[in-house]
Amino acid sequence: MLEILLSMIDKRKRDPRLLVDNLLLEAPNPKNIIDLPINVLEQALGHETAQNIQFIKDLMTWYFEPDIESKVTLSSPDAVSDFIIKESMTETYSEKRLCNYLKAEIGAQSREFFMVVCLNSSNQVIQKKILFAGTIDQAQVYPREILKFALVENASALILVHNHPSGNANPSDDDLTLTTRLENMSRGLGLRVHDHIVVTRNTAFSIKGSRFL
């Protein structure tokens, strides 16, 4: 599959098998190649072909990105978790689509990112945004900025999402403390925190549900 793709996008028409070999030196698992940093792709493939690979990933992320206009309803905390990460073939397309979007958007990143999803009083998704970006093992998160964003968007509830570049979705003590703090602060403003989801490239963990999903 990779050889076919590279033969189509490499304008220099190099042997795609050699290009794949170069990529596998950086990412032994072929599925991780598309998540390689752009500078690594450029070293292995050259600038133009690397940019084409990056464009394909951006296109995939755009395709899976949920349509805010559809206002998907999340009627319970369990529905929130389902909407974020379920991948079962029995789930609706929108649930699986958002799961794939989150994994493509932040799950495989080499740095931590913190996203906030806003819901209205009917538990419909009205907005989402990455508010903070950090290092390989932490992102500095400011609760007041999260609440400010929620109030500006006229949200009634929040879903917190962040990634663990290590690939381990288990929440840290800091994750648990932040969740509790935001719950307490939100309550005073009439907001609810439905859940805090930790995502990786392949899995996710619901802090409110205390379980892998």
Structure description:
- The protein has helices at 2-9, 16-26, 38-45, 47-64, 77-85, 93-107, 143-152, 173-187, and strands at residues 113-119, 125-133, 157-163, 192-199, 204-206, 211-212.
- It folds into two domains: 2-62; 67-212, Cytidine Deaminase, domain 2 (3-Layer(aba) Sandwich), CATH 3.40.140.10.
- 44% of the residues lie in helices and 17% in strands.
- The radius of gyration is 19 Å and the shape is elongated.
- It starts with a helix and ends with a strand.
- Helix 8 links the parallel strand 3 and strand 4 (192-199).
- The protein is of the alpha+beta class and 213 residues long.
Give a quick set of tags describing it.
17% strand; 8 helices; alpha+beta; 6 strands; 2 domains; 44% helix; 213 residues; Cytidine Deaminase, domain 2; elongated; six-stranded mixed β-sheet
